[in-house]
Amino acid sequence: MAISIESLPPPGWDGEGLDGLLAAFLPGRLSEIFGPRSSGGGSLLLALLSRATARGGLVALVDAADSLDPVTAERAGLDLRALLWVRCGGRPASAWSAMDLLARCTGFAAIALDLGGAANTAPPSLGTRLQRAAEGSGAAVIVRTPRHLLGGAAALVVSVRRVRTRWIGADGLTRLGGLVSEARVLRSRMDPRLATPERAWVMEWRA
Amino acid sequence: MTRIACLVVPGAGEQTQQLLLELALAHSPSVEDGGPGIVYLDLRGLEGLFGGEKEIARRLLDAMTERGLAGRIGVAGSRAGSRFAARSGDGITIIPSGEDARRLGPAPLALLDLDPRMTTRFGRWGIRTLGELADLPSRGLAERLGDERSWLQRLARGEDTTPLRLWTPPPAFEESAECPWGVETLEPLADLAAGLAEILCARLSRHGYSADAFKWSCRLADRTMHEGGCAPAAPLSDPVAAAALVRSSLAAHPPRSAVEEITLRARPVRVATTQPRFDEPPRPSPRQLTATLARLTALVDAQGIGSPVILDTHRPDAHQMAPFTLPPSPLRGEGRVRGGPRSQGGPKSQGGPKASGSVLTMRRLRPPRPVEVALAAGIPAHLRAAGLTGPIVAGAGPWRISGDWWTDAPFARDEWDVELADGTLCRLTRDSRGWRLEAIYD
User: Fold this and answer.
1) Distance to chain A for B388, nearest Cα, Å
2) More confident residue, B45 or B170
3) What pTM did the predictor assign?
4) Which residue from A minimizes the CA distance to B280?
């Protein structure tokens, strides 16, 4: 028999905490989110895009692995009409080139590249090019990678990792409840205080 | 004295209406679009050209018949009179000058296209025909309806002093270039098309228009036609962006043989120029966005660029791509609703209530990857797939979903959410074809 238990958010998590982390992704700067699969990095990326569209901005997502799920994206608050989705069908080289092109287009609030597991390297000097393009276009340029790829080019580097999975059901698991993940800022050129080792954001992503 | 002809074609569509308007304009410079299937034209001054009213009406009817339009024509001193004449008679009906009031007497009130409130009001007064309305005391009617409504009585008496609202055909934006020697390679053809786009954009700008679509057609050396088109993300009249767009469109669909003539058409739209609000987020300029999308099309498949639209079905991952266009700004109160107004029921069917910002998203594998799953007591215990292998330490399921059984492509499957030992959270599905890895949570 299914029993639904809504657990409380874990200690250390609250809405302001997530907003505080999202606010660190500044317009006109290149940011990198890295972490293995199921670490909450994709959810963090969509939360960033959703926040941008909620403020009336347009966003672009270069999807290297063609893996965006529009239904969960919409549940996360992303206005699909304000989203330019570029599906690269598992071709990382095309994704990097598309990102290089889009990052120069002014008028987007956020431009993201989601590499998924599609790439393990970045083209040489592309990080620097993206940073300069972000400064020119004024958009928040974000790259989600499975591991740290952009070297010293990104103004903000956030590492994410899974803390635990939350399941619902007391007498046998009945449903996936969510994922608790932790984000740490490894580098923040604009606000170095964010990158202190003892500071971490614990976030719960609800399924 | 005003003399109006009314052309009536019952059940006319948009194309027929356009044909009717053009036909009328070929006979008189004063033409009014009276709504679907109705066109008025002013007959004053046409006697010298075509003869009397009867001859003009006959000429109009012949022209309609030539174009395959089965219609009727009425001529009177007012719009209401001519319309009544056209509807009541067969072929051509002419109400002589000064007889509009008498002939309109038995006509129903519906001829005046009254709003429902006014129709009800007259109905309560027992007024059913134009004659009954015309016979009401003018002063009393003005007291009850106000001055602005008393013109209805003048119309019922066949007094129509309002000039026709002149219809003018929309300007055609089309340019052609002939190359009898035959252009065999893409580059010079793209140059030709880009030149045409620049000329078109200059004409559009002169008329205060922008283009929201371009269509090109090539006459090939083998006497066949090669056609295509492209649409910018936002209406534009910038020659450079239009040229880039047409170039990329031609490059995506190159002709199969030498081109002897190329024609480019632009669909004109009026774009209201508005000053951006101070608190409005910046938006891409149509010129830059169009150029960027054109270059993106060269990098990835054009079908893979756009905005997702969730389809109204319970089928998992049911969505389609729509061309990306600049949506109206929500700050102007033009209705972008947070959470995707374009969706057609997806969240209702699959996602439950909307959350905000802290939703666990999933990466879909397209197409879902076949996997090997070992069961223990009917529960998935081990997963083996390319790049993803390991014991399953937790899981929930099966959740059975099915639907579309009334169509040719029904679906039914069991879904499991499982967690591998390395922490990977994924969704497995099982149907008649076996186990598949559907998505990975991230």
Assistant:
1) 11
2) B45
3) 0.68
4) A56
